[in-house]
């Protein structure tokens, strides 16, 4: 049975609107994705760690309640759980303040077994920082050996702009070892000074990874492959409350769609436009659903709507 394996940090997101706290939910980019995967019933587990404080214990319990396996998740006695403050503007977009220790590999983190067709979902600063590099490299090696689909979400925040030069060799290594690279136009504006998907693909990604997805908020999704570049409109979302989990849930929906549609790693290089349209449509449904609440994930019981 195919499964999704998430890898990343966990963090308690405290959301503010009009300078008042309105919600506190477990978060983290890949964590948000894997919770949504679990909520729609796709087999999944999460690789990461948290502290043994009340925040960490609640995080583990939350994963259990949402169908996320924790056999490869570590609770550390000497670690404080990470916290972020997310300040929402009128459009539901957030600016962040983080309170956390630098990510680092512990003594007890282990790597789950991979099988052909599994999806490894990873990304953000966690995937490029020195402290987590040994685990990331081990996961990528195992996933590639098994023929898993490796989905890398850059999620490069402006707070790490000053580290871009130092992180670039690691990011390029991640490109090279991934099956799909996904990033937002905002990421690439910070990294490369452009939002043009074709230009980004041809200049910075195609030489390392043949499949590239560029999301541009509520406007468009561009899919760049050796077969061509396909652009899709993003369906409008009514009653937007928070966009905090939008990109993460796009990743979750895309990962689930790969399994639901029976698409294997080797299929991605020759997938026609219609196939990409179906994957993107499902991913956008997940993202839109996450925007309708202060949660970072799809609601329990969420199901996709198949096109007529």
List the helices and strands and how they pair.
Layout: E1 4-7, E2 11-17, E3 20-27, H1 29-39, E4 44-51, H2 54-65, E5 73-76, E6 82-88, E7 94-99, E8 119-123, H3 133-146, E9 149-153, H4 164-177, E10 180-184, H5 185-192, H6 197-205, E11 212-216, E12 220-225, E13 228-233, H7 246-260, H8 273-290
Parallel strand pairs: 1-4, 1-8, 2-6, 4-5, 8-9, 9-10, 10-11
Antiparallel strand pairs: 2-3, 6-7, 11-12, 12-13
Helix content class: 25-40%
Percentage of residues in strands: 15-25%
How much is the average pLDDT? 94
Pattern of helices and strands? EEEHEHEEEEHEHEHHEEEHH
Q: Helix count, per DSSP?
A: 8
Specify the structural class: alpha/beta
Radius of gyration: 18 Å
**Count of DSSP strands:** 13
The end-to-end span amounts to 28 Å
Low-confidence stretches: none
Largest sheet: 9 strands, mixed
The 3D shape can be described as globular
Strand order of the largest sheet: 5-4-1-8-9-10-11-12-13
Task: Describe this entry's structure for a reader.
- This protein is an alpha/beta fold and 308 residues long.
- The chain contains 8 helices and 13 strands.
- The strands form 2 sheets. A 9-stranded mixed beta sheet has the order 5-4-1-8-9-10-11-12-13, sandwiched between helices. Strands 3-2-6-7 form a 4-stranded mixed beta sheet.
- Helix 1 (29-39) crosses helix 7 (246-260) and helix 7 crosses helix 8 (273-290).
- The two termini are 28 Å apart.
- The relative contact order is 0.15.
- The model has no long low-confidence stretch (mean pLDDT 94).
């Amino acid at each position: 049975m195919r499964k999704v394996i998430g890898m990343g940090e966990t963090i308690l997101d405290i959301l503010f609107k009009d300078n008042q706290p309105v919600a506190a939910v477990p978060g983290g980019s890949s964590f948000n994705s894997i919770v949504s995967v679990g909520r729609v019933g796709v087999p999944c587990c999460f690789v990461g760690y948290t502290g043994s404080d009340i925040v960490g214990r609640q995080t583990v319990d939350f994963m259990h309640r949402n169908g996320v396996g924790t056999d490869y998740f570590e609770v550390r006695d000497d670690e404080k759980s990470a916290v972020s403050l997310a300040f929402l503007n009128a459009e539901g977009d957030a600016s962040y303040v983080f309170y956390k220790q630098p990510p680092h590999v512990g003594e007890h983190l282990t790597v789950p077994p991979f099988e052909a067709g599994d999806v490894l979902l990873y990304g953000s600063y966690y995937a490029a920082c020195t402290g987590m590099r040994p685990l990331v490299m081990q996961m990528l090696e195992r996933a590639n050996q098994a023929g898993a689909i490796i989905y890398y979400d850059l999620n490069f925040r402006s707070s790490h702009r000053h580290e871009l030069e130092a992180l670039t060799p690691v990011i390029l290594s991640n490109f090279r070892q991934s099956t799909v690279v996904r990033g937002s136009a905002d990421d690439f504006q910070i990294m490369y000074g452009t939002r043009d998907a074709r230009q980004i693909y041809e200049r910075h990604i195609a030489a390392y990874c043949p499949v590239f997805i560029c999301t541009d908020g509520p406007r468009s999704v561009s899919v760049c492959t050796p077969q061509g570049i396909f652009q899709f409109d993003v369906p409008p979302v009514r009653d937007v409350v928070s966009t905090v989990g939008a990109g993460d849930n796009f990743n979750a929906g895309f990962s689930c769609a790969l399994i639901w549609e029976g698409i294997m790693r080797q299929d991605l290089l020759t997938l026609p436009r219609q196939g990409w349209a179906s994957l993107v449509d499902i991913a956008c449904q997940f993202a839109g659903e996450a925007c309708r609440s202060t949660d970072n994930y799809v609601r329990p019981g969420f199901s996709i709507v198949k096109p007529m």
